[in-house]
Write a structure and sequence with these properties.
With 523 residues, the protein is mainly α. The protein folds into two domains: 289 residues, no CATH class; 213 residues, no CATH class. It is built from 20 helices and two strands. A two-stranded antiparallel ribbon has the order 1-2. Helix 2 packs antiparallel against helix 3 and helix 3 packs antiparallel against helix 4. The two termini are 25 Å apart.
Length: 523
Amino acid sequence: MQTALTFAADWVIVVPAILPLAAAALLLMLPNRIAVSWWIAVLTTLAVGISGAVMLWRVSADGPLAMTMGRWLPPFGISFTADITGAALLLTAAVVTLVVLVYARADEAGPGPSNRFHALVLLLLAGVSGAFLTGDLFNLYVWFEVMLAASFGLLILGGGAPAFDGAVKYGLLNLLGTSLFLAALGLLYGTLGTLNMADIAGRAAGADPAIMTSIGALLVVAFGTKAAAFPLNAWLPASYHTPPASVSALLGGLLTKVGVYALLRTLVLLLPASRDLLHPVIAAIAIATLLLAPLAALAETNLRRLVGYLLIGGVGAALAGLALPDDNGIGGAVAYVIQAMLTITGLYLVAGLIERSTGETDIRRMTVSGGSGTRLSVLLFVLLAAVAGVPPFLGFWPKLLLLLGAAERAAPAAPQAGDAIAWLVAAALLLNALLTLIAGFRAWATIFWQSAAEKAHGSAPPPAGIPSRQHIFGLGAAGGLVGLVVVMGLWPEPLLATGRAAAAGLLGPHAYVQAVGLAGSAR
């Protein structure tokens, strides 16, 4: 049993999971007062963000931070472990959630007519926070279940038949992914006798390679489903456009990124040998996701469905880093996940504002003009440029790291078996940028340049404008997020440094294992 005392400052690691859970339970017990529940949700999210910032500062200075529950030494106790990757993604998730809460305030009736919306948002934040911080794979499964329950509730809350239809498709395929994850956990525990991540990092190298590769393949399918990677991505464009825009933004900004994070955590930190054997498969999935998603976006006329396909293309870019397993490749993947959490959330928010302003969901019938049209045009332009990776916007810098990783891996001076694959990944990244640019800006030009008389043979309704409340909360939240994207694009050094530091921690697990207290298990 553990006998050492836990420092009070170390309890910061459990705050992001425990506090939202407690606040969500409190909201369900309170009377139906939207303003009070909103303030509780905002203050809780701020506390989570502050905890994430403190953790990021601490792990940047002192290395990973760990806490094991129940006074049982690892690997038997339930461990929470924060490193650069988990802390940076947690802080970004809190920022995204806070922006969405402000944006949702623009709906006078709210996405749901009760406290349930804010309670479900906090439950989702607790699940995401727990997934980023857990040091145990079974508890990662538990947090996935928390996220699934919260996201399913958000999808159907206040929605009609389309929302329920999208939620069913979302729930069924994600349950399939969760079931495969649980099967992989059973095989892993039967093989290694542990599910503690730090313990697995030390024991996996001595296990049967065939069994470990099979487990790795199951994890690729399970987490690939969660991340909406090809060919397991049909559920996302079929569901994310059906709820209110605030819900779409929250799910699009958080859920698939947790799937990518789980792939990076398991295949880079825990099972590197399995990742090497599965490298051609991972590269093929990344390339297919990079190319097919923007091609589908070219044919899409529903604005939020189009954003969904751009989201999937970004998942392919993050997976490209997994196919280029060096400092630049993994660093580019982590940096890309961070920027995608911000830009995809922003795209869904701006798409929601455009839908409110025009009363349409079909790009061909949207007509936006006047002062609000100019502001929405600028916001959408910046976000599309960032997602496509146009310099100097935010998405350019992670893609540059990925391309540097591909160039190093394919360099003639250092020939490797994966050289040809590296060239293919680099070509797919560049082609993805081009296709995303064409799909995004064609939609932008159709919405803001094509006149109302040219749309629907002159039958387009006049723009409805944006009510004053939505000016304050909706445009304010989206504009603030776009401002952050612009600043980070013009000053990318912190993002790139975070990505590289995260890559060093994932590729070299010694500090992570030592923080948990299993230094003797480090490979």
